[in-house]
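So, does this match?
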Amino acid sequence: MICKVLKFPRSTYYKAKNRKKSKLEKFNEILDQKILEIYYDSKKRYGAPKIQKILEKTGIKVNIKTVQKRMKKLKIRSIVIRKFKNHKTKEGIKQLLNIINRDFETTTINQKWCAD
């Protein structure tokens, strides 16, 4: 009845209904459970890098990008924000000579140029 109303083939409906989960889907379900378990055990402090390391220690080999994608799908993220670290440059700022000495008068165009 529903298939007639929606103009949807019955064979497609039964194919979707009786479909078995693939190995990847099963693995992702297990991975999601493990990620959530680690995430809540850490009181929502761990992000993808730490979760990935813990998974690796427990024997589940998974890429960090996979953990990031699964966390995004689960709509979870670390509550800890990394503090800003100021990285000073190795080279000092060079002081150049003041050639103009605040004399900006010129007789032609493009005789003197100035920049910050």
